[in-house]
């Protein structure tokens, strides 16, 4: 069995005493990927990295990573590659183009795509990987830049049980919670479903508090009532969009930090496209996507996604 | 002070040892009101009731209530009246028509409207009550028929602090949680805001699970992920709309019992009208209202409101 | 028959040779009402006017109108009163309060409400009018300030056939098209239904052209295609929201003039409330209302309603 | 110039005296394509056809077409190929797979894709075609099965001016109106924008008439008012969704014939995906898509798209 053969390649890290891959590749050193790659290094793995941004690469080589000249160059001497890229198209390009990961990886290599993409992209890549005996799992994350830095990301993994177990120790170096969501693509599916529900309940919370305020309610009182009643949700309880209800959330810090409007719009766009293909009816999810697009059109792409409260409330 | 004067009228119930009104009126003995009136009787209050439905009245007189011939007849000898009626118009009629409560109540009488109405209705009635020295609070409930029966309703009360304290002991005979939401109308406002958020997060949950299912996710796995992530809400965690995820919720019992589609549509209609008047922007709340209207148009008014999952999923 | 008796009161205007009411009252001399009242004067009618704004009244008395001190004062010596007021509440106040039109009008007086209101308001007033033998019709208008000035408004009239015929000659002094829509309230209903469809097709046009532009289409080519195909509507053909497609429409004049966002939002709010009461499902109409509310929240209440194109397109 | 060289290949048809391609290929003989291919034959062209459905092929060979064994077999001896396929994926497969049209076509062949697809699909195929000197235009149609039969389709063509002129005579054998919409992909873009606006105005019309009916309006009166006012659109005027307003439209024939709900849902899905990629805000277009998806979920996929009136109105 290929997963068993692969697991034979694990060695024990001197630094941590845990089993680990001897040599790891990483592609995509952006806001998230840069921190994730550093955490792999910290666990004592050897790391070879690639990014089109030279500065991002230098930041990693300075702390001990090796530099590759292409995705194909990353994959040629490693047992496992993690990719963290900004879009479907970037992922398809890195995996699929001439000299991409799929055509260059050796048999039994494990490819982990932590980008957030359409589940169909993951499934397409997995099928092609299978033809040449390469293992693929999707493992998108939640938790944002701070969790990437602290190594406390949640990984939602789609792939065979064997590949999940194979990937888990490495993912543990970057995250605190590693969840098996099902076959390939199901990591993406779980992330998109969760984030769509998050967007809907955040906008719903913003609307309820906007209406409450215009009707004359004290919004701290409303928060107490909602959070002990059937309206309770993560957004009302732990990430309230009204400034001053909770300390230390973006709404109380001018909607800075957190999970940006443009990132939420991207995830909702992926959910929307997946729903079109799957012929699933998602009226509120679709409208949530449109609302975040309108917020971007009005110039607030960089605010935290709880800014929707201010968008609805207005300034007049 | 009128609230102090009124409170002088409390006597100590022999049965319970608690302070109570010596004589209570109750108008509206429907599914909810019938149970609520019984619970008042059980606490040892004297009760006089009115309803247009003779059978509903007989049910109460059999267990010790007195019968009144009109709202005016209810209010003439009591210190407090509770009303539980199905619509804005019923409330306006009972309070406002010739021989209605407002024109017949004695000075310092406390009128508690537990109907769910537009906050403006409560505020209008309170202003008229004030002219003749009558006290008014709105006190809509949540919890449904079972909580009405068990005396475990939540009351969301709008009115002066004095009137809230005055109403509280009586409300305690019918409910387990009595919350002061602010001035008159704010009980209604809090209920409508909570229920609008509930509808939005329920539909959002139904959409996320509908999309997940069509993408191939195991829905129990999805529930685990969502409920430990940012998509978590009361609807996903305690009232999941997918049959078989939770025992003992309506979705696992053919969507029977629970909180009906038509009641949710009514509350969303009230929230919508309040938002039109208050000029509040509530796009998802509005769409939630329309979705429940469409479910009614398709013939499922009597199902529990979590039936929206089946509506979206379809039967083809 | 009361309509016959009333029609006996017509006299022939010296100025125009047409039958006319000898003496007309007018209440509400705002942007629309001021022009409408002048056009009545121009047709040789005697006119007595009332408004809370003293300047608005002076403008009319300078050109020959008499001044009344209250609605009751307007109605005491006339056979017909036209009202043109900004909201449900203003109409209810002018007609219903102590010394309002309904309690002061003589038998057989004709009251024409040209305000845009909820059809239920018209129906409520008509029922009260009937009790004292007073005639009521609703006659909301379309066409905007320019048509009010030029006397080319369209009147959508709800009332009995007799009252419609009675009102028609007077309405002809202010409008070019007088349409009988059915019983009382149906003028309002027709206006709200038309304007809701107008808002939906305007936003739909704005979306289609926004999408077309982002996909790379020449928007004049798109306009030609749409206007000779099944997407054709009044908004695409005669009031295109894209600057430069048509001359002499608001979009080509910085979205100034025309039919303001806040007026459209008001009509959509009335349609929404009427739909809540009538239990009609109107998902796009509801969302159109919310979109115009969001445009107001973003500070563009005074732009023409075709500004939605810019709102969706954004500025980034 | 390749377009000039290609045009050299035109010969004059004996039957019609018009210039025509000597030999034409056709792929996709479904409800639309079968009629379109017959109309090409009728104009005296030699035709070679391919479909996976053997019966569909026999129907054409019986009237004189030749049979090909694959897309590659179609293209090997012709100057022009028309394709009419049901989805993005079918088009990509026919053009792109091993032995697909693109790898098999000779230099200067003209490929006309009349399928409705994402504009990005057309643009991707055109780029690949260009590499081997093959010409590609997108030419989706409107008009439905009857227009396909009668040869009165509208073709919306995207491609260079030269290729448009080259394609035009052949398209004239199938359609009455051949419109040049811009570069490759713009035929698709124009069709999707038009159909999205059509869906929005159809649903808007259905909502306006649904509201009107519930408010008590005579719907023939409402149709007269709307069609002479600003609510006028193709759907209200020529394809009214209310039974009995117009003769000879699907709503007056039990919503049979016409443009099916599932086809409209497909086009709206394409518009939605294109908007996600183009980052265009289309709230009503998105909701229209969801409404048609809900109609499918409720079991009415095969009704004409004006059936939305019945969906909203309901049956209770």
UniProtKB/TrEMBL annotation, chains A, B, C, D:
<feature type="active site">
    <location>
        <position position="191"/>
    </location>
</feature>
<dbReference type="InterPro" id="IPR015815">
    <property type="entry name" value="HIBADH-related"/>
</dbReference>
<keyword id="KW-0101">Branched-chain amino acid catabolism</keyword>
<dbReference type="InterPro" id="IPR002204">
    <property type="entry name" value="3-OH-isobutyrate_DH-rel_CS"/>
</dbReference>
<keyword id="KW-0496">Mitochondrion</keyword>
<dbReference type="InterPro" id="IPR013328">
    <property type="entry name" value="6PGD_dom2"/>
</dbReference>
<dbReference type="InterPro" id="IPR008927">
    <property type="entry name" value="6-PGluconate_DH-like_C_sf"/>
</dbReference>
<dbReference type="GO" id="GO:0050661">
    <property type="term" value="F:NADP binding"/>
</dbReference>
<dbReference type="Pfam" id="PF14833">
    <property type="entry name" value="NAD_binding_11"/>
</dbReference>
<dbReference type="InterPro" id="IPR029154">
    <property type="entry name" value="HIBADH-like_NADP-bd"/>
</dbReference>
<comment type="similarity">
    <text>Belongs to the HIBADH-related family. 3-hydroxyisobutyrate dehydrogenase subfamily.</text>
</comment>
<feature type="domain" description="3-hydroxyisobutyrate dehydrogenase-like NAD-binding">
    <location>
        <begin position="185"/>
        <end position="311"/>
    </location>
</feature>
<dbReference type="GO" id="GO:0008442">
    <property type="term" value="F:3-hydroxyisobutyrate dehydrogenase activity"/>
</dbReference>
<keyword id="KW-0560">Oxidoreductase</keyword>
<keyword id="KW-0520">NAD</keyword>
<dbReference type="InterPro" id="IPR011548">
    <property type="entry name" value="HIBADH"/>
</dbReference>
<dbReference type="GO" id="GO:0006574">
    <property type="term" value="P:L-valine catabolic process"/>
</dbReference>
<keyword id="KW-0809">Transit peptide</keyword>
<comment type="pathway">
    <text>Amino-acid degradation; L-valine degradation.</text>
</comment>
<dbReference type="GO" id="GO:0005739">
    <property type="term" value="C:mitochondrion"/>
</dbReference>
<dbReference type="Pfam" id="PF03446">
    <property type="entry name" value="NAD_binding_2"/>
</dbReference>
<dbReference type="GO" id="GO:0051287">
    <property type="term" value="F:NAD binding"/>
</dbReference>
<feature type="domain" description="6-phosphogluconate dehydrogenase NADP-binding">
    <location>
        <begin position="23"/>
        <end position="182"/>
    </location>
</feature>
<dbReference type="InterPro" id="IPR006115">
    <property type="entry name" value="6PGDH_NADP-bd"/>
</dbReference>
<protein>
    <recommendedName>
        <fullName>3-hydroxyisobutyrate dehydrogenase</fullName>
        <ecNumber>1.1.1.31</ecNumber>
    </recommendedName>
</protein>
<dbReference type="InterPro" id="IPR036291">
    <property type="entry name" value="NAD(P)-bd_dom_sf"/>
</dbReference>
